[in-house]
Amino acid sequence: MSEKQTDARIVLIGAGSVSFGLSTLGDLMTVGYENLNGATIVLHDISEPNLKRMTGVLKLALKEAGEDGDLVPYKVESTINPKEALQDANYVVMSIEHGNRMETWKQDYYIPRKHGSRQIYGENGGPGGAFHTWRQVPPMLKICRTMEDLCPDAWLLNYSNPVPRVTWALKRVSKIKTIGLCHGVLSGVNGLISILGTSRKNLDFISAGLNHFYWFIKVTAKRDFKLPAFDHHPEEEIKAGTDMVPYIRKRGITWAKQGEKSLLEEIFRLYGYLTYPSQSHPGEYIPWADSYCPYVKYNFSGYAAGGEREKEKLNRTLAGDEMNYWWVHPSGERAIYIIDALEHDKNQYELAVNVENGGAINNLRSDCVAEVPAYVDKSGIHPIDVGVFPDGIAQLLQSEVAIQDLVSKAAVTGDRETAIQALSLDGTVPNPESARAMFNEMLKLQKDLLPQFRP
Quick one: three-class SS letters along 39-90? Predict the structure, then answer.
């Protein structure tokens, strides 16, 4: 067996998804195609039609590769039975949503606002993020319990939102090795190079914080380069080793103003650092965000229609009316890269993983789930010490961590008072009476999706 071969059993939970499920198949057919040669790929989903669709296009791609004389690296299994899927797994990649995703998200967004919340977006932070967490944790915990019985040494790599809250909840009650993953840092990198008008290869940087609330706290010039003129900012010669944060601070205000990113403009003025991705995600964790971007919501109907179009395209592919390789490309997600690094002891640098902080951010709670850079080798995932955050940013993060603490506790205990305390602590919720009202209404609307709160 060559160093790039493996007999690993890689299980995709939620494989029927046309977003993360299909993107992970794309990564397997590109990123992992040679390095994970010999692996068994197990597709699992509770929706049999969705599972059959994804299994069909993956098997078709492998069949076509073999007919072209290419390597056929994987054995493929498919099952709606979670115990069959997880038996003897080495890696479990999870991307699930409990309930009708767009319908429940609309409720997460509108019901808290109906009861006085000033939240924006409502997916990962604010009261909407709390309800999202409370729905997600019961089925995720069930997966962890099954893993404890059938594959206790496996890694669980989770894409499902809200990443830090569900990861913290699972860590409270399960010994399964769990990390959270998100591609958002790539949009942050794009923002960084847009502000500076230079190539990523010219920069060394560290991004860290909380998922969807990370900060480029250290940026230095990797080599000599020319910083182009931008608006009223002059062209400048930059020497290797130069601290780029002052340049980002000045130019970032202009960049945000030009892009009508009023929240990011204020954050630059107040804290002096770039946080990302966009305004919607950091704004979920800032109580006064609605003063700068008051109406930020997801395109619920547009996303649902897009998902149906993707399914129809997959159906046409299976019917032979569409070329199969349209979905075969790297997605930008990191699970398959990390599995490769764990398997082959690569000591690989990762820009962002969501793990227990453990002091990586020195002045943030050790037990919270932070998003930090890390190295990955056969022995595990090793967060990098990123040092001390500026005090104002650290306090802003600590406020969100306090909420995440209570939300994740309520998720696993089902304690209603803890849930109300979590909602009341959120700065977008006006008072405990409002918190109780939105909690009670959501329990009625989503009672089957929130079993931990049943009397």
Answer: CEEEEECCCHHHHHHHHHHHHHHHHHHHHCCCCCCCEEEEECCHHHHHCCCC
Instruction: Quick: pLDDT tens for 164-177.
Output: 999 999 999 999 99
Can you give the residue range of the structural domain that contains 47? 9-100+125-182+309-342
Strand (E) or helix (H) holding 438 = helix 432-445
Determine the Cα–Cα distance for residues 376 and 339; give it in Å rounded to an integer.
9
CA pair distance 276, 269, nearest whole angstrom = 15
Asked if the structure places residue 162 within a domain, the reply is yes
Alpha-carbon dihedral 68, 27, 347, 360, rounded to 10 degrees: 180
Q: CATH number of the domain that 83 lies in? A: 3.90.1820.10
- C-alpha–C-alpha distance, residues 306 and 302, integer Å: 6
Distance CA 153, CA 91 (A): 9
**What is the SS3 assignment for 173?**
helix
Over residues 407-429, the mean pLDDT reads 98
Q: How far from 187 is each of 113, 246, 296, CA to CA, in Å?
A: 28, 21, 18
What single letter denotes the amino acid at residue 319? A
H/E stretch holding 148 reads helix 126-150
Contacts of 100 (CB under 8 A, 6+ apart): none
- Please report which helix (H) or strand (E) contains residue 350, including its range: strand 348-356
On whether residue 70 sits in a domain, the answer given is: yes
The answer to whether 110 and 30 are in contact (CB under 8 A) is no
Distance CA 292, CA 269 (A): 13
Contact yes or no for 442/416 (Cβ under 8 A): no
Q: What is the largest CA-CA distance in the chain?
A: 67
pLDDT digits (tens, 9 = 90+) for 70-84: 889 999 999 999 999
User: 417 is written with which tokens?
Assistant: 């008072």
Does the pLDDT value for residue 350 go beyond 80? Answer: yes
Q: End-to-end CA distance of the chain, in Å?
A: 55
Q: Compute CA 118 distance to the chain's CA centroid, rounded to the nearest angstrom.
A: 24
Tell me the C-alpha distance between 248 and 267, whole Å: 12
Both tokens of 425, joined, read: 């602590």
In terms of domains, do 198 and 171 share one? no
For residues 65 and 198, state if they share a domain.
no
The owner of tokens 């899927």 is: 85
Neighbours of 46 (CB within 10 A): 15
Q: Is the whole model's pTM more than 0.90, yes or no?
A: yes
Domain count, the chain: 2
Q: Which of 397, 446, 393, 392 is nearest to 419 (CA)?
A: 446
